[in-house]
Amino acid sequence: MAGYLLILNAGSSSLKFSVYECTQEDTWRVRSRGQIEGIGTSPRLVAKGALGEVEEEKVLGTEVPDGRTAIDVVAGWLRSKYHDARILGVGHRVVHGGARYAQPTLVNQKVLVELKELIPLAPLHQPHNLAAIEAVLERLPDVPQVACFDTGFHQSHSQVAKLLPLPKDLCRFGLRRYGFHGLSYEYIASVLPAVAPEIAKGRVIVAHLGSGASLCALKNGVSVESSLGFTALDGLCMGTRPGSLDPGAVLYLFQGLGFSAVEVEQILYERSGLLGISGISNDMRVLLSSSEPEARLAVDYFVYRAAKEIGALAAVLGGADGLVFTAGIGENSPEIRQRISAASAWLGMEVDPVANLGGGCRISTAQSKVSVWLIPTNEELMIARHMVLVLGLGLQGSVSG
To answer: Is 361 helix (H, G, I), strand (E, B) or coil?
Structure first.
């Protein structure tokens, strides 16, 4: 009977999954990957094989109202696809590990309870991450589950970079800068020696640009700073989140306009960012195709904030040797890559228009002082690599995706 690892990345309206098979002793390779998107509205299942061939694609109708049901659908698809499946472990992306959880961790009830305490710090993500763990626990109680944290990769930050300048007696409650998208940045750092060896040991700024967006400063492959801090509200403008915001504006929402805590949370997590500026959409594709001035303003602000933050990270690093674009917008929008690079030209970046449109790895010109790269991320592969170590199923390097 073949042994498999299942990787789940659960969001509010989507469930990404990957299946890894042990092809020979201590060697794991991806067999399938896919997602259910539009959960609760217009759910749709897409699954692809290791080479990108479509294995399943169908509209699910009204039968997937929530994430738990989505897991049932994935489980049913796995049973139909892998009749001899023996799940050896399930790995999960968990956005916030807090101060306690820095390393990939085997989940038990104690861990689950402590991770639930962090829900107020990541209300858009943490509840869905943990609901997936609970759903698997109900269905496969004897299968080990491993939680991998988006905050873990940034534990290497200096004390100064972690600091929130609040009263010391308050900071003891875990008030500090954590950073997020760590699994994505860890993956990029792991492939730089092979993909971009000339910058792998240098000063690299990675732009993870998607519905959630952030930047990370790497020095010799180690995270030294991130644009995200205590929660996933900081830094860049995002799909529905504002990014950096004067704390006085939040106070005014409470004191001047009389909003409740629940209302302010909704404003900050669900109604701001690209959606708030444009009043049209949180989807960069929609905004780029729109001729409405509000849509153009939202895109302009996104580019402005990214370029501003790149400058800040370059200051932290003492310069930059490379800029890497990744994630949904970073991987799929040549216009955004070009505009952010152009706004950062003072650092010595020069994008090759043909290479940028072609989607190759290096998209900068030969004379560019700071090289610019496009590298697709793979958080699920990073989770699988952690799993084989935690579960004693092989070495991290024996996993390929």
So the answer is: coil
Among the listed residues 188, 185, 256, the one whose alpha carbon sits nearest the alpha carbon of residue 225: 185
- pLDDT digit of tens for each residue in the chain (401 aa)? 468 899 999 887 788 999 998 776 668 888 899 988 888 778 888 989 888 898 888 888 767 778 888 888 888 888 888 876 788 999 999 999 998 999 999 999 999 999 999 999 889 899 999 999 999 999 889 999 999 999 999 999 999 999 999 999 999 999 999 999 999 999 999 999 999 999 999 999 999 999 999 999 999 999 999 999 999 999 999 999 999 999 999 999 999 999 999 999 999 999 999 999 999 999 999 999 999 999 999 999 999 999 999 999 999 999 999 999 999 999 999 999 999 999 999 999 999 999 999 978 999 999 999 999 999 999 999 999 999 999 988 766 676 76
Taking the whole predicted model, whether its pTM rises above 0.85 is answered as yes
Domain span at residue 120 reads 3-155
Any idea which residues carry the catalytic annotation?
150
Domain count, the chain: 2
Type of residue numbered 352: D
Q: Are residues 355 and 228 in the same domain?
A: yes
Is 171 contained in some domain? no
Q: Beta-carbon neighbour count of residue 328 at 10 Å?
A: 18
Give the span between the Cα atoms of 158 and 156, in whole angstroms.
6
